[in-house]
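Subject: Tat pathway signal protein structure
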Amino acid sequence: MARERNVKLADAIAETGWSQQKVAAAFVRVAAEVGAKELLGTSRSHIAMWVAGTQPSGRAPLILCETLSRRLQRPITPAEIGFSVLGADAVAASEWNVDTLTALVDLGRSDVDLERRRLLAGAAYSVGGLVLPGPQWWDEAPQRAKSRPAATSRRVGAAEVSAVREMTEFFSRRDQRHGGMDGRTALYQYLVDDVARYVGGTFTSDGTRRALLAAASEAVYVAGWMSFDASRHEAARRYFTLALKLAAEADDAPLAGHILRAMAHQATDLGHPGAAVDLATASVERKRYTLATPRERALLGVVQARSLAADGQKRAAIAALLRAEDDLAAADVGDEEPSRVWFFQRASLAHETARTLWTLGDLDGALQEFNNSVLTRKADTFSRTHAVTLGYMGAVQARKGNVEAACHTWAQALDAMEGVQSGRAREAAVNMRRVLSPFRNRGISVAAEIDERAKAVLERVA
């Protein structure tokens, strides 16, 4: 019987603008990254056969989805390119379907074990891995967690919930001051040694079980955020996914929105605006926005604004910015808020607003908002973020042609980087040297000084 041409796959390839030969070459690169040695011989003829209607086997559908996802800058599922769900979707959805406790232990161990940590650090960021499960998965998550049998005899009560929350807040504040490269291994070990035992324990009440799952979700989220700041992006994505699963099991909609917001932030930074918009949109769905406090709503909104700006949706981005401003203005000092939003103040809103305006091409507006952020932030508490803000501010000044002002700002940024171990701070130093490269060996003392100081930071921050 003649095979039916796979029109969906043909259309997706046409959208990439690639020939089948280029698709095959990109496919092989992805296969090599993930260690799929059996697929390294994939050629144009394989792509042609798949378009003609042959169903690929093994890991090929997932790797093709990842290949197309990277090119199109949005998650692609097997079903979207006409592949059967047998095998392919099982692999694509494995992170969502695997037992949460097993995932927590395995992912934690991979970061504690030196060799597995090295492999994970080198893994490429998976755009295809950003595919979210459907509504049924979210609806069933709380019951799945409730019916999961205890893995240990550990009795878990309010004391354990408080312990996890206290440790999470400690690492969160440490991250804001010293950056994600500093101390994250200690958090990974804590997740394996303590948090995993609590998740697998016996709970004193159903309320305690949900509170512990939410606390565990926030701890895993902070591990993801520290990995993100350390520029270990695939590790961060996996932690965020696991944190999202725990939040779903805890039936905590605002927490799930908070994590989806972080995933959108990461996708935007890495240049995947389509995926970022999808994640940011999901962050405000299913009561994630409506049940959140005004401060957290503002955080969700401003990240959504930046993702929309990166995707070229100017009017929607501006509307989201205005809504975020209104939400933060509605936040009251006496509000009962989750500890995870402790960092989001006026300075944070100004920082993200500036980045959105910069993306939209409004350099004057961006510069004003970056300056507002710098003036209103407690620099000693938020050293990492302060350094990054100043780095961006100098970049805008340089873009406007005022290199002298940029150097003055960058001098402050480099001062703030003292003691900071952050991939994002490191990127700021790299950008300083890139912008100043035309001025090297020209006798311009201020540019030479900043260039040398930035070089020293790069030598210090591995």
